[in-house]
Automatic annotation (TrEMBL):
<dbReference type="InterPro" id="IPR058407">
    <property type="entry name" value="DUF8094"/>
</dbReference>
<protein>
    <recommendedName>
        <fullName>DUF8094 domain-containing protein</fullName>
    </recommendedName>
</protein>
<feature type="region of interest" description="Disordered">
    <location>
        <begin position="109"/>
        <end position="135"/>
    </location>
</feature>
<feature type="transmembrane region" description="Helical">
    <location>
        <begin position="192"/>
        <end position="213"/>
    </location>
</feature>
<feature type="compositionally biased region" description="Acidic residues">
    <location>
        <begin position="111"/>
        <end position="122"/>
    </location>
</feature>
<keyword id="KW-1133">Transmembrane helix</keyword>
<keyword id="KW-0812">Transmembrane</keyword>
<dbReference type="Pfam" id="PF26366">
    <property type="entry name" value="DUF8094"/>
</dbReference>
<keyword id="KW-0472">Membrane</keyword>
<feature type="transmembrane region" description="Helical">
    <location>
        <begin position="265"/>
        <end position="287"/>
    </location>
</feature>
<feature type="domain" description="DUF8094">
    <location>
        <begin position="310"/>
        <end position="608"/>
    </location>
</feature>
Amino acid sequence: MRFVWAVAAFVLAAVMIVAGIAQRTIFQGPKTETVSISAEQDAPYLLIDGAVLNQLPGSQTLRAQADGDIFAAYGRAADLQAWLSDVPYNEVTLDEAGAIVTTNVVPVPADEGDAESGDAADEPAAGPTDKQLAAHSPVGSDLWLDEFQQTDILIAPLQLPEEMSILVATDGVEAAPTDVTVSWPIANATPWAGPLIVGGGILMAIGVLLYILGIRHARRSRGPRRKGLPLPVTEPIDLAVEGEDKGVISASPSTRRAVSTGRRAFAIVPVVAVSALLFSGCSADSWPQLGQTPTPSPTATVVAPEGQQAPAVTKAQAERIIARVAATAADADKERDKSLAATRMDGTVLATRATNYALRESIADYKAPAAILTKPLEIVLPQAYDGWPRSMMAVVDDKATKTSSIMVLTQEDAWSPYKLTYQASLEASTEMPDLAPWYIGAPQVQPDSPFLIMAPDQLATAYADVINEGDKSEYFDMFEAEGDHLREGIATDRQRRLDEFNKTASQTGSLTFSSAVGSQDAFALATLESGAIVAVNIDETDTVKPTNEDAVIKLESNPTVKTLAGADQSSTGFSTTFTDQVFFYVPAQGSNEKIRLLGYSSDILNAKVIQ
């Protein structure tokens, strides 16, 4: 009976193992669904719409083949279309039936179709000239959320929503790759393959055990079981006698032990082989998932107001942009190259950099600008805007140096890089207002907004008046004095310099100070409390003049002003301008709060001889 059960176990084990292996091989089916993308006309770019990427659920894998370098990047569909607005490209979309269609898009010059005559209107539109369709290099654009570059074959794993698109190209001049496919994984889990294979292995081990027990039982059951007749007494046989055939067959215990040992080894071999088979090739999708699907814990969320546009950048995008700006600034500072700095800086930031470079050319020990902080990026507040120019505000907190920097970066159009336009150091005890998360962004507050206790375009004028007049200013009570180290520092420095000047030159000259609105426009982004963070530019001018016709202003101990003014003395005097980049929090109308200083920076801008 043991042999019967052993055979049954072997047969059932074989069926289970074969069924389990078949589920993972011949019956499993394809693991991916792949579609090919083709275009009838060559174009330097191929734009694949998000609807095409999401026609099947799951992550996407883009594959493109061509000779040489292949480039791919993804971002918001509207941004990619704007970037391609002046070049021909092939656009891959879905038609109403859900089929993939490729359309060749050729931009029309701005003056095309303006002719008033009917004959001109009936003529076929002339294609754009090469000058009008200037090629752009797609590599390194700040619009991309991510980009890929590989040689001959490009494989890009993606997981993009429908509002995202992907751009494929070579160098922006030659035709884009024509061998392009998009694939999606197919859910083909075999949850019973693992249990079948393991269960079959266990049955096979049981069958082997039953087989061994059956053999053992059969061997012990040999011969009659009834009691036999008494045997006659035998005499011992001398096996050493030569030449005589005794008719005895040797069956020593050692021989029997050897045979028994060989059979045990033979029986163990299948068990080991089956065990190796059981656990090879069994992945997670070969087993039933019995555990509950984890659910995310609820967190506080901020909902974007209805009709608000998309944020200009993501946090990862902002980190990459700031790192690029910092790297370019470091190279420009090292080489004192204003043209290089202008590729990533603008406004007051660029102007003060140019001044620094000029001073370092003439003054050997003049200090270089501080490096732009890049990480960790604590706050990213992108402007919620689909058009251009678009901006973002960021705060970087350097734990090593215990310094923080707040900055504004602006992109003028789809092809331009982001440039640093405002930069300041945050006060040590600065408490930032509540801001929207980066994935929502904030709308830009209009310069003349009536919804704040002071319009952004009036803020620089009011603060300059407070610096000049102190508590006599009509705006004094609107600004929080506690923690305003800029105002305090300006007042202290002015008094110190005036005292030094009066010691030697009070009878022959005059030193005056004034603050006024700088050349850069104010920039403001809304906060969650309907207030705004506002960046403004204020210029401080020091003017020294002789009050005696025979007096001359000399710059013996001031190499900075001497270098910028290009003179070491003047009978008419000198004016020196410092520029401040200042960030404020401005509360909403009806708030009991005052305008609060967040951070500032101050640098020398220029110096000149008074004409």
